[in-house]
Amino acid sequence: MAPKAKVNPKPSPAPPPPDAQSAPIEDLFSALHRHTQNFEYERAAKVADQVLAIAPGDEDALRCKVVALIKSDAIDKALSAIQGSRHLPIDLRFYEAYCLYRQNKLHEALEAIDGQERNSMILQLESQIFYRLGKMDACMESYEKIQRFKIDSLDIKTNIIAALVAAGRSPEVQGTMDALKVKASSNFELAYNYACSLIETKKYADAGQQLLSARRIGQEMLMEEDYADDEIENELAPIAVQLAYVHQLQGQTQEAIEVYMAIINRNLSDASSLAVATNNLIALRGTKDVSDSLRRLDRLIEKGAGAKQFQIANGLDVKLSTRQKESLYSNRLLLLLQANRMDQARELISALPEMFPDSVTPVLLQAALLVREKKVAKAEEILLLYADRFPDKSKPVFLARAQIAAAAGHFQISVDSLSKITDIQNMPATVVTLVSLQERMGDSGGANAVLNSAIEWWKNAMTEENKLDLIMQEAASYKLNHGREEEAFQLYEKLVKSRGNIEALLGLVMTAAHTNLEKAELYEKQLRPLSGLKQMNAENLEKTPGAKHVEGTHTMRVEVSEDVKKAKTKKRKRKPRYPKGFDPANPGPPPDPERWLPKRERSSYRPKRKDKRSQVRGSQGSVVREKHETATTATSVSSDIGPSTKSNQGISSSSKSGSQKATTHEQPKASSKSKKKSRK
Predict the structure, then answer these.
(1) Which pLDDT does position 378 carry in this prediction?
(2) Which residues make Cβ contacts (< 8 Å) with residue 373, sequence separation at least 6?
(3) Do 196 and 173 meet the contact criterion of CB atoms below 8 Å apart?
(4) Nearest to 672 by CA among 148, 84, 108, 273
(5) CB of 14 closer than 8 Å to CB of 58
(6) Are strands 310-312 and 301-303 parallel, antiparallel or unpaired?
């Protein structure tokens, strides 16, 4: 949010100017007021300088100059004016913080407003700084404080919704909009942010419709404000990118690629939308056409100056969120691994921890690089160290460590990593994975302990979707297959008594057949009889020797009713199709039956006789002598023409390709984009 210019000047604390100079100052202040009303900020800054030349240290003139410079995007000049007036008793820290925010010096901007009174303007600036830093929890705290001032601003409400989406609190968006008494149709930015919340909650069809509505609202609003067609297209470019992203999430790959390519080929002036479209297109391609994807990303990422090794090109460091920039760098690193450019990958991975200190992505990418270099033990070590250092971020780290260890055959390390993730330890997928890993190690007792622990946890779990029956069913099946019939029988019996599940009843009968035949017969009576088996005597069936295997193929005779036979015998007669001009009454001579055979295989074929007249008669040496004379003549003729050279001399006939097959399993990630309205 940009600060507003002061319209009515206040009396300056400086001593009043002489009477001869009072009239010119009043005229200058009138001109200053006129320029600010007409949005002529460059002229306003010049008039403010004239006032300051007459009355140095005038607070109103200094504030008007700073605001006018900010409004005219002369941020460096505004910051210089603020720093040059530090000796004056004028508090310009808010304007200084805003200039630092515009220069993307976010931490310095936070330091500038530290200790100031938390009024609505300070809180709005603070919330935008936190948003750009990616600290969404702190951003939402600032917006909650702003709401206490009861400011009825549609821009602030739009930013609140954007912050909720970016903070991962999309389910709260609808309730917040109701509390703020605002609808998605209020403006196209709010409609866009609401669509982003629908995407986060996986309501893709509704999100697509909302994005179409946002585009329609935006076109109407911008046309009313007399925007040109190209300006409207640039303003609505984020909506087009997000529509393509919805196609991508719905599996409509071709539609998404076409939209992304159309946006990229139009070369819009909205650089942030172009960057997101390029990133998502690369993620959609995956490992296909790696060289072209790297060329596209190299246009967005360039070497930095000074301590900054890399930076986003075209001033996108300010326009893209931290999450989007992280996605760009991550995709470039994954593509470098696919292209086997290990030196460039090491250079990039060394810079990522400093660029994204609060993110877990750099350590995951570092582990991927080590796995590609076949340093699995080192990758497992750095992941464990990071998880111990940052326990609140350990879940994705332990998951990656478990996957790497399992793929390398380090099953015990994989089990230990999964066991440390307490919130998913008893989920069905985790239980199945742990049991499988324990079996790979030959530890059936450990697998049995995992199943028993999961059953006890789900017995006490207070959740809407209880998975106790599923866990007990799988545990009973495992115990039955591993010689624990008594334990399996108890689990199946509990399932039958509590749920009456037919699958559990079948398992119970099978288990009881090994342990207690009386109970097996008792529970067998609860099974429904199969149709067609009432007339079959089980005792007589057991006395029969059984079916005999006979070599060869035999067909079994099946009784077929007469109606079915008649229906099969009836065939539809079709009229024969004759060539054009053919008369079936006068067909003429029959065609040659050997017309499809090669000529040599036909009965009418006669080989041609050899012409013996050209044969040379005489001694054997005469023929050789004639050939030698002919060759000598040809050589003398060619020597008169001139020397010949070999054009391909020294060129190798084959070459080996330097590319290798990619072995990493990481895929590039797509980036979603939520719109936060920023007022300059």
Answers:
(1) 96
(2) 342
(3) no
(4) 273
(5) yes
(6) antiparallel
Nearest of 279, 394, 388, 288 to residue 338 by alpha carbon: 288
Tokens standing for 241?
């990118």
Burial of 668 (0-12, 13-18, 19+ CB in 10 A): buried
Q: Which residue has the tokens 């993620």?
A: 283
Q: Which one-letter DSSP state was computed for residue 288?
A: T
Q: Tell me which amino acid residue 617 is.
A: R
Q: From CA 135, how far away is CA 129, in angstroms rounded?
A: 9
Block residue for tokens 């599923």:
470
> How would you class 57 by CB atoms within 10 Å of its CB: exposed for 0-12, middle for 13-18, buried for 19 or more?
middle
From the list 310, 232, 225, 237, the residue with the least C-alpha distance to 270 is 237
Query: Among residues 440, 410, 435, 411, which one has the least CA distance to residue 425?
Result: 435
Q: What is the DSSP letter of 311?
A: E
Q: Rounded to an integer, what distance in angstroms lies between the CA atom of residue 25 and that of residue 429? A: 78
- For 152-172, the pLDDT digits (tens) are 889 999 999 999 999 889 999
Plot region of 618 (φ>0 → left; ψ -120 to 50 → alpha; else → beta): left
Kindly state the helix (H) or strand (E) to which residue 301 belongs, with its residue range.
Answer: strand 301-303
Residue 611: what pLDDT? 58
One-letter amino acid of 528: R
Instruction: Give the integer Cα–Cα distance in Å for 293 and 340.
Output: 14
Instruction: Tell me the backbone φ, ψ of residue 602, rounded to 5 degrees.
Output: -80, 150
164: nearest Cα among 126, 203, 190, 202: 190
Rounded distance between C-alpha atoms, residue 398 and residue 76, angstroms? 46
Gap between the Cα atoms of 228 and 226, Å rounded: 6
Please, is 128 exposed, middle or buried when counting C-beta atoms within 10 Å of its C-beta (0-12, 13-18, 19+)?
Answer: buried
What DSSP line would sit under 393-427, residue for residue? GHHHHHHHHHHHHHHTT-HHHHHHHHHT-GGGTTS
- The amino acid at residue 561 is S
The residue among 72, 71, 97 whose CA lies nearest residue 82 is 97
- In a 10 Å sphere around its CB, with 0-12 CB exposed, 13-18 middle and 19+ buried, how is residue 366 labelled? buried
What is the C-alpha to C-alpha distance for residues 651 and 672, in angstroms, rounded to an integer?
Answer: 50
| Tokens matching residue 283 | 């993620």
DSSP code of residue 665: -
Burial of 532 (C-beta count, 10 Å sphere; 0-12/13-18/19+): exposed
- DSSP per-residue codes, 357-379: TT-SHHHHHHHHHHHHTT-HHHH
Q: Residue 464: what pLDDT?
A: 66
Q: How many residues does the chain have?
A: 680
Cα dihedral 65, 66, 69, 74 sign: positive
Q: How far is CA 9 from CA 60, 177, 296, 678, in A?
A: 6, 39, 52, 28
SS3 for 525?
coil
Selection from 75, 78, 31 nearest residue 50 by Cα: 31
The token pair that represents 617 in the structure block: 């008669």
405, 262, 276, 376: which is closest to 669 by C-alpha? 276
Given a cut of 70, the residues of the chain with pLDDT beneath it are 1-23, 305-307, 464, 499-502, 521, 523, 525, 528-538, 546-572, 609-680
The conformation of residue 310, written as its DSSP 8-state character, comes to: E
Evaluated on CA atoms 669, 673, 679, 680, the torsion sign reads positive
Whether 355 contacts 333, CB under 8 Å: no
Phi, psi of 532, rounded to the nearest 5 degrees: 95, -5
DSSP reduced 3-state for 48? helix
